[in-house]
Amino acid sequence: MPLDFPASRSGNGPEISVCVPVYNEEDNVALLHQKIVASLEPTGRTFEMVLVDDGSRDRSVERLAEIAASDPRLVVVRFQRNFGQTAAMMAGIDHARGRYVVTMDGDLQNDPVDIPMMLDKLDEGYDLVVGYRINRQDKFLSRKLPSRIANWLIGKVTGIPIRDNGCSLKVYRADVIKRVPLYSDMHRFIPAMSTQMGARVAEVGVRHHARRFGVSKYGLSRVFKVLLDLISIKTLQIFTRRPLARFSGAAALSSAAALFAMVTMRGGDLVVETAVVGLLVALAVFLLFLGLITGAMFQQRDP
Ligand code: UDP
Ligand code: MG
């Protein structure tokens, strides 16, 4: 069956892997395939397309199967149910065999025409080339305005200003992107997370089109997800380096507070004193353990 993974995903891969999450995009996939081929074939570079079906309920899978039957460069990965854009993107990146990875949306809002220019930029010595949508073709109030605020906020919180975190069209060195851990809706934070890991990032202006077929999969609720993810990213940023030192500092403060409480509350209500001191000591112990666990976790992840 053409939808199964090819027997072997090892061996010499192509130069470029274009990874695309697809969720109910039945009228877009054939055109997308055509446009990627038309954009990359003239460059003479070898490429594959890894299209990840994120549990579509329309005929996307059938359409993909038809294309894959006539083009061996198309690899189709299928999810049993809808896991979300980030998970689908990550599955694509995991299956990519190319030295370079391209990510983009599957609804033709990004334009494959921009890929060669972005690859050339990467060749100038970058690890990651991020697109920013020039003349973005989305609604102002529900899309562009929240996105502008989010970009400003992400820049402030992470200390890494990126013009357009929400633009999926990006080109990476495979060995760099394969090391960035992605979960929740965190594909929006890839530039910030990779910069933190030492990646050299360039930004280039890219085309953007209005959606012609199908509908957007997101509503305004994504704003809250982005905010929660931002908190997670900041927490990671703070604790990835020397977590034990940071947590034990907080634990020492809590112990000092416990000592202070013991001295000042002497002679008062014994029940209250025991409760306050007990809580502070428990907090100190908890923080120390948290430091140890986080320390072990990050040490394990570092090669
Ligand atoms: N997508 C996905 N899983 C989802 C939601 C979206 O794979 O749960 C894909 C979707 O098919 C498209 C891309 O992610 O290729 C961007 O989605 P969409 O166009 O709905 O986002 P918008 O452009 O409205 O921000
Ligand atoms: Mg879209």
UniProtKB/TrEMBL annotation:
The keyword Calcium does not apply. GO terms for biological process: lipopolysaccharide biosynthetic process. It comes from the Bacteria. The chain crosses the membrane at residues 244-263, 275-298. One of its GO terms (cellular component) is plasma membrane. Residues 17-179 form the Glycosyltransferase 2-like domain. One of its GO terms (molecular function) is undecaprenyl-phosphate 4-deoxy-4-formamido-L-arabinose transferase activity. Keywords: Cell membrane, Glycosyltransferase, Lipopolysaccharide biosynthesis, Membrane, Transferase, Transmembrane, Transmembrane helix. InterPro entries: Glyco_trans_2-like (IPR001173), Glycosyltransferase_2 (IPR050256), Nucleotide-diphossugar_trans (IPR029044). It holds the Pfam family Glycos_transf_2. The keyword Aminoacyl-tRNA synthetase does not apply. This is Glycosyltransferase involved in cell wall biosynthesis.
